[in-house]
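User: Round two. Same drill as before: sequence, then structure, for each protein.

Assistant: Same drill it is. First protein:
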Amino acid sequence: MADNSANLSLPYIMPNQAQKHVTHNEAIRILDALVQLCVLSRSGSVPPEEPADGERHIVATGGEGIWTGWDGSVACFVDGAWARLVPRAGWLAWVRDEEGLLVWTGSAWIPAGAAMSGAGPVSEIQNAVRVGLGTQADAANPFSAKLNRALWTALAAEEGGTGSIVSALSKASEGVDAGFALQDGYSTRALLGLLGSDDFAIRVSPDGSTFYQGLAIDRSSGNVAIGAGPDANNRLLVSGGNALFTNEGSLNVAMSKGAAGDDLAFALQSGFATQALLGLLANNDFTIKVGAGYTPALVIDNAAGTVSHPQNAKFSAYASSDQHVPADSWVRAEYDQLRHNVGGHYDTATSTFTAPANGIYLFEANALYRSAGLAPSLLQLGFAVDGGTSYKDRRTRFPGSQLVDNETMVSVISQIELLAGESVSVEVRYSSQAGALAGGNATHFWGMQVA
C-alpha cells in the first residue's frame, strides 16, 4: 500500500501508526488548501511580509526566498509557515485580483476557457464576460488587448476553411455606430465605419470632441463625397474652398466619355443652378455654353482648331434700291435688306446696328457709285457712332475725277470700340453736286463683335 493518495498526495494513516492524528491533520490541511482553490494573486514572486493564515498564491516566475524554485506552484501559509503544493494537470484556481479562473496545463496556468486537451486547443470559448490580453479588461472594454502587433490569417481550404478572411462588425440599427476609433493617448483622432447611418464615412478630429467629415460613400449608389455627405446624383462630390492637384513632374488629369454624341463637361453653378457648361458637349468640338438655356458662346472645331462665337453679334445687310444723296450734306446710307442678323441687333428700318455689350466691333461698308446724270466733285463714305459725324479715320473719299458711273465701288472698313447701347450707321456725302448709291444688292454693310 502506498503512503500517499494518487491525485492530491494526501498522507495515509498506516496500520499500527502512533499519533495517527498528526497524519490525519496533515491531510486535512492539504484538502483545506486545495479544495475550492482560490488564490489572492499569481503576479508575486516574493512572499508577503505579513500573510494571513490560510493565504494562498500562485508563485510567479523567479520566486525568491522560501519561494525559490516554486514557480507555478501553489504557496499556502498555514500554522506560521509556507507550504508548497505542486499542481497537477487539470487543477483549477480562481485568481481574486484578476477575477478569472485558471487551469494548470502541466506546464503553465492559462485561462480555463482556453484549456489544453490531449488533442490541442479547445475549439470554443463561450460566454466569456471579459477577456484581457496583456492588460485588464473592464466593464467599458470587456475585450482589451495590450500588444504591438496582431495577426489575423485565413483558414486554408486544406485546413477545412475557404481561404478567405472577413471580420464583421454588426450594429443594432441605422442610427448608431459600427466603426473603428483611431486614438492618440486615448483621445480619438479618426473614426471610420458606419457612423450614425449606413453610409461608410471617415471623420477626423483635432481634439477628440470635434469631428470633421473627410470622406463618405453612399450605401445605395457607391457615390463618393469629400468634405460633405454623399449625393445620390453625383458620382463624386467635393465640398471645400480649394482643391489642388500637384506633382513634381508632369501632371495629367484625363476624363473620357463613351461616344462622340455624349457629353464630357464641367458645369459651373450658382446655388446649384448651372450658369455655364464647358467641355465636349454632344460632339467632340470644345464648347462653352452659358445661361439657363445653355446658349453656345464659343466653339473650337475639333478637326481644324478654328474658333467661332455663335452668339457674338453679327449682321450683313444690303440696299434693295438706289438711294438719292443730295449735295454737300452727310446722309445716312440705307441698307434695308438682311442676309443674316445674329442676335437681332441690326435695324433695317433705320439702317443702324446697336451694340449689345461693351466690346470691339469690326465693320465694313461699300457703295456702288451712280452719277444720276450729275458730276459731283467728291464722294465720302464713313461710319458714324450714335448719329454723329464720322471720324476721319473711319472714312474713305474718292475725287470726282476717279468716279466712273456704275463701276466705281467705294469701301470703308474700321474697328470700333463701343459701349453697350451705342449705335453705328453708314454716312455718305457728295460734294458740289448730288449723286446716288446703287441698290439691287450692289451696296453692302456688315459688322461683327470681335472681342
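Second protein:
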Amino acid sequence: MEALERFFHIRERGSSVGTELRAGLVTFLTMAYILLVNPQILSEAGMPVADVTVATALGAAVGTLLMGVYANFPFAMAPGMGLNAYFTYGVVKGLGVDWRFALTAVFVEGLLFIVLSYGGVRTLMLRAIPGPIKLATTTGIGLFLALIGLRNAELVTDSPATLVQLGVVRAPVPLLALAGLVIIGALSARKVRGSLLIGITAVAVAAWGLGLAKAPAAWVSMPSLPRETFWAFDFSQVLTGKFLTVVLTFLFVDVFDTAGTLVAVGRVGGFLKPNGELPGADRGFMSDAVGTAAGAMFGTSAVTCYIESAAGVEEGGRTGLTAVVVAVLFVLSLFFVPTLAAIPPVATAPVLVVVGALMMSGARELEWNRMDDALPAFLTIVLMPFTYSIANGISAGIVSYAALKLLSGRPREAHPVVYVLAVLLVLHYATGGGA
C-alpha cells in the first residue's frame, strides 16, 4: 500500500487507496457499455463482433493504463463514440471501402497523434480551430449518434417520399427499445451508477427471452487475441487523397474530443490552473495517442478519453490508481466475450440516443445571436446527421467560418490555419472529394 501511496502521490492529492479503488469501479460501470456498443457499430462495417469486442477491451486497457501510470490522471479511455460512427458510416459505407482501409487510417492517425503530442504543434492546432466549430462538432456528433440509435431501434426508417419516417412503433423491437430508453433515462435521473449498462442488460435479456435475438451459447471463455482484425492493415492506399482526408478527419475529431474531455474532467477534479490549462496534459494526449495506435493494431476505431471519467472523479478519484483499476477491469471483461458478442443492436440503441442527448450541452455555449459564429456552427451540427458524415459537417463549418469572417470584415478573428484549411477543403470537394 505504501508503494502505491508514493508512486501515485495519493495522500498528496487528498485521496486514499480505498477511495481510488472505489472510484475506478464506478468509472468502469459508467462506461462499460462501450464493450457492447462499439462492436455493434463496427460490425456494420463488416468486422467480426467477437474480435472487435476483444480489441475494444484491449485498446481501452492500454490507453487507460498509460493514463494512470504515465500521466497519473484518474481518466479512463476507450474507443470513442462518434469516431466509431465515422469509421463505419463515413468511411467504410460512405466511401465504399473495406474496413481494413479505415483501420489503417486509424493506426496512421494514432502515429501522427503521438508526434503531435510533442512540442507545440498540438497547441497550435487547438488554438487554430474556432471555438464555435469545436462546440458544434460535439453537438453534431451527438445528433448523428442519436439518429443511428433511432434507426437501430427501428423507430426511424427510410421513406421514398420524405427520406425518413416514423417506424412501426407497436412492433416488438421499437417497443423494447423505447422501454430501454425509459429505464436508462429514469436511472440516470436518479443518479444510479451504471445506468447505461443496466439498461443494456435489461433489454438484451428481454430480447433473448422473447426470441428477438439469439442468446449466447456460452457465457464465458478463455481470452485470446482477435483472429481476423489483429494487425489487419492495408497500406496500399496510404498515398491517396482519400486516405489523407480520412486520416485528418480522425485526427481532428480525436484531438479535440480528447482535449475537451481532459479539460472538462480536469475541471471537475480541480486539476486546472487559474488560466484553464491542465498541467501534464501532454502526457494525457500521449496516452490517448498510444491507445489509439494499439487499439487499431488489435482491431478497433480510435481510442479517446471518456467524459464518464467524471463519475469516478466525483467519487473521489484523484490519481492514476483509479485509471489502473479501470484498465484491470477491462482486461477481466475479456473472459465474457461470448456474452458481450451476443448483445443485439436493439439493446444498445437506447444508449446511442442517451449519449447523443448528453452531447447537446455544448450548443448552449454558442453565440446564436452572432451569425458569423452561429451559421458555421449550425452547418457543422446539421450536416453530420443529414449527410451521415462527421467529415462533411466539420468541413462545412470550417469553410463557412473562414468565408463569413473574411466577408464580414473580421478576418483576424479566424486563425491563419483556418483559411489554409478552408482553401484545401474547397479544392478537395471541387475535385470530387467528399466523406
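The mean pLDDT is 90.

User: Perfect.
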